[in-house]
TrEMBL record:
GO terms for molecular function: L-allo-threonine aldolase activity. InterPro entries: ArAA_b-elim_lyase/Thr_aldolase, Low_specificity_L-TA-like, PyrdxlP-dep_Trfase, PyrdxlP-dep_Trfase_major, PyrdxlP-dep_Trfase_small. Keywords: Lyase, Pyridoxal phosphate. GO terms for biological process: glycine biosynthetic process; L-threonine catabolic process. This is Low-specificity L-threonine aldolase. Its cofactor is pyridoxal 5'-phosphate.
Amino acid sequence: MKVIDVRSDTVTKPTREMRLAMVDCPVGDDVYQDDPTVNELEEEAARILGKEAALFMVSGTQSNQTAVMTWAGRGEEIILGEEAHIACHEVGAVAVLAGANMRTLHFENGMPDCAMIEDAIREEDIHCPVTALICLENALANGRVVPVAVMKEIYEMAKRHGIPVHMDGARCFNAAVALGVDVKEITRYTDSVSCCLSKGLCAPVGSVLAGSREFIERARKNRKLLGGGMRQAGVLAAPALIAIKEMPKRLHVDHENARCLAEGLKEIPGICCDSSAVEINMVFFRINADEAVWKGLSGYLKERGILVNPGQKGEFRMVTNAGVNREDIDTILREVKAYMEQ
Ligand SMILES: Cc1ncc(COP(=O)(O)O)c(C=O)c1O
């Protein structure tokens, strides 16, 4: 039985081409910056993301936290949405590593609001922390995409205040596909950007952090401090290189599958799904029924070869990815319908 895994796009496996590239790539000691494959990945990532330089990271979390550490010092403040991955899902690392204060703002549907951010910037006052960084996310963890005009407005406001902007672009290529723009149209309104290669792009491991040459050199030292100085990392950079060059071209398929899934789910009695909110590869839906009903869904699907994270208070998320095709979407819809009918 084929297992259909829609828990996340992090479950994607490296392609055959990626596995073969791992075998043949030249390697060296990357702490000496001697690994030709890592160097090539970093140059290519910088070019694609429209920045001067880039740095290969083990994970999106390492990449974001290295960026925060590099921009913000102990006791300084960073402004970000209260639902941001950096605030909620990185184990409180901002407090532990940078030692910075998080000023989290409540944005409607997670959509950053320029006026609210500007209002949260601290004035020069002996009592106040210094605002050192604004963190954005695109695509948002709720599957929505921040329009380019909003990115531009916030970036220009930040420049007026002399504050850098970091973007958690774990899914920035999904955002670019959804907005119908080159990814550089988004990243140009950031001073640093972190982009995950191991999600929809299918690399086995890794993210890249991109920014100015000067920023990346400081980030390199912080990555070393975090134990992230890798040696013959070319074997990981080789599939990552394929991921960043080739795999954005296929993300529209995941988005189409997600829309198809949402359209089907909203027709199932007892399920509430706003298909118009599906912009990338994430589908959110709610089961309006007793706790016993929604709590049983993931176990029922698992027995039928469909992996879904357990719902939280009746809310579910399914994420389409390279391992899921249109036939699988039909299978998911058929099984969810059967569950709801029983
Ligand atoms: C928006 C966002 N940022 C950052 C990350 C962190 O990536 P990693 O799991 O590679 O640490 C994730 C992971 O799911 C994410 O969804």
